[in-house]
Amino acid sequence: MPRTRKTSSKRREKTSSQQTSRPNPSEGVLCEAEVVPGLEAFAADELRRRFGADLRVLDTSGSGAVRFRYRGALLKLMSLRTVQAIYLLKYIPGRRPSTLLGDANFREIQTLIETVRSAERGDYQTLHLAAAGSDTVLMQRLKSEFAQQTGLALADDKGDLLIRLRPSAQSAQSSTAAGDQPGWDVLIRLGARPLATRDWRQCNYEGALNATVAHVMALLTNPAPTDTYVNLGCGSGSLLIERCAAGDARQVVGVDNDPAVLRCAAANREASEYASRSTLARADIRSTPFATASVDALSIDLPFGQRVGSHEQNRTLYPATLREAARIARPSAPFVVITHELRLMEAVLSQQSAWRLERELRIVLRGLHPRIFVLRRI
Ligand SMILES: C[S@@+](CC[C@H](N)C(=O)[O-])C[C@H]1O[C@@H](n2cnc3c(N)ncnc32)[C@H](O)[C@@H]1O
Question: Is 252 exposed, middle or buried (0-12, 13-18, 19+ CB in 10 A)?
Fold first, then answer.
């Protein structure tokens, strides 16, 4: 499917291939980061911060996508934390999908696949082709050509090697200066799994938060090494572990009242590199064991009332949680909250005076439109 692009004021620089007719190898490879829609600016920040002069962000205007050029070692990109997946991207001019089977084009795609496979130590066994109309005769032929060339077995759903094809919304990205002629974006995912599927996730929990969102929520607390950080309702530990990944802290504590999810959080924490840097406590988030005004930063992934909790319970849980968080927070402490119960959250916020709403981020997650609220203790 073509990606919807906003005609926005956001920055869209010209790629070198638009400026000149040939790509310049010193500019590196063209990549696209897949990001939770609404978090593009955080991904662009991380890309710039982590890779400096080796990376040039080209376009942040796509919903859920950030394009960039990169000339460092591809393996280093695998450590990004705010990005769901990284793809190498090639624009192939030509209206019909059959253009992709043309000798020169097919060779270019093969080279791209080889670049990805040689960059990562991962073991690729299967291949999946994701494209609109993937059942058509032509797409089936493309699939079997790719399978034959790569020696990988075709997978119907998730494959180790993921190839995405889509009609290009950015025809002018053509490295052949094809102007506005229609074409195809070929995207090959770097790595046999998305980056959002963290190595630490040993225990799955149905209501678990996407790890890239958890990381952004940790960043939104402005992590400092002196922090006492509390994650209320920690579930399987996503916010807890990603807070540790975001930087040192004096103390990182996860609180939940469900022993089964606490065991799940413990398993995930053990599998992370931060096993010794956090503690877990069984307690009710409406009445925690922390002293008054003792916590520097807090976060919570509130039950949405769908997979976890119920709308009925949330009516009392939300205000009680904000009250208890206000009790334990130091003055000016940030409290980063995610929820999908927007009307309830807005009503609860309007009826209290302990927290000031500093920022609200709209994101898209599993087809839902939750928001991240950044609150500040008054
Ligand atoms: C949406 S889940 C959090 C999921 C978590 N972010 C993760 O990635 O796994 C909400 C959590 O709040 C916990 N919870 C709900 N009500 C609670 C209460 N009154 N006291 C303590 N924990 C509670 C649930 O057990 C659940 O683990």
Answer: buried
